[in-house]
Amino acid sequence: MRSTTLLSVLALSATQTIARPAYYQTPDERGLLDSPGVLDDVLLFDAPAFPDPKNPGNTIASFQTYVSLRQIDLGVATAAITDLLTKAGIQVGNQLSTVQERIKLFGSIGLPGKNVEVVVPGCSTSAKLPSTSLTDLGLASGSVSLGTCVDAQEMVATVVPGVLDNRKFSASVFPSPNSGFGIISDIDDTIKVSNVLDTAALLRSTFLDEPKAVSGMPQLYTSLKTSLQNPQFVYLTGSPYQFYPFLNKFIDSTYPKGPLFTQNLTILNIPQAIEFISGSNDKTFIHKTGTIDRLQTMYPQKKWLVIGDSTQKDPEVYASAFKKFPGFISCIWIRRVDNADNSDARFNTAFADIPAEKRRIFTDADIASLASIDVAGGKC
């Protein structure tokens, strides 16, 4: 692997590429500007929704948003990523617009103290999210009640526009009952070819190439959607939120739709982002296990099929959740990726005390046959 050397080179030139506002105005100082307006951009993330434990007739949605200045100067960031790609032997050529689209959020300036309100047609109550924070530079998240909602597998949440703003910012909301099945899926090298073990190939797949599905996985997920009777699909990634638009578009066009959970890390340069995608670091482990903890709180009676790969810590993440919440995870599937640590010692350690019939390590040659497994009937 060349990742450490390559990232170190870029870090010398790109660590200071993203400028941040030096002065923070409080909401009182801004007055009406505490709501996003014409000078701001809003990214609303797709949200899972679940029955209110205290009032099951109501629906709670777990929203996340990012508010930033509308105008973005990508000049310095573009120069940095172009330099990194060149050092890796990769020429941008006529794909500069693709690169700039994917790094856009790295050039944005997040705005703290912004209050976002969303409405969901079919639900009785609008939702006011917590203010975006100074610590997370423009991010905000929270679980809020939508009141009573119509019965639907997908709804659309739209940001209430600010003064003189006629743009539309929206995202999907995915209600699911506290019963039945769900599927938790990793992304990189589980359902998307990312090549996280090869830095140059990872750079190409992240910044230049059209995203490519792992062969056979879209068909498998479509089959699971039928056999598990419209399970709640949830996608996990170690990537930071700056890659959310790119990854979410890929999922929506290739796999059954569902909320995508990225790492909410205040990353100020692109080398850090690549390191989080390619590295098996503790923050990624904490992010994924923490997300599964949240899902267990939302859907304590739902059973889950969890799917990952062997390049990072998916076996360890899923094994940890299996032991922490008995009966919550019905089955663990791990894609065996070439050149990863696929040793018996690794898997035996990760899956210690987990019955063999509750886990499966599969190769690409096995993917087509996975559709015939009766997961709903308790097989794995």
Q: What ranges have pLDDT less than 50 throughout 5 or more consecutive residues?
A: 1-32
Strand content: 15-25%
Instruction: Please give the share of residues in helix.
Output: 25-40%
Q: State the secondary-structure class.
A: alpha/beta
Total E-strand runs? 14
Order of helices and strands: HHEEEHHEEEEEEHHEHEHHEHEHEH
| Mean pLDDT level | 88
User: Nearest-angstrom radius of gyration?
Assistant: 21 Å
Major sheet description: 8 strands, mixed
| Termini separation | 34 Å
Shape: globular
Number of helices: 12
Give your account of this protein's structure:
With 380 residues, the protein is α/β, with parallel strands linked by helices. 30% of the residues lie in helices and 23% in strands. It contains 12 helices and 14 strands. The strands form 2 sheets. Strands 1, 2, 3, 4, 5, 6, 7 and 8 form an 8-stranded mixed beta sheet that branches. A 6-stranded parallel beta sheet has the order 11-10-9-12-13-14, with helices on both faces. Helix 7 (244-254) links the parallel strand 10 and strand 11 (260-263). Helix 1 runs antiparallel to helix 3 (75-87) and helix 9 (282-298) runs parallel beside helix 10 (314-324). The longest helix has 17 residues, at 282-298. It is globular and about 60 Å long.
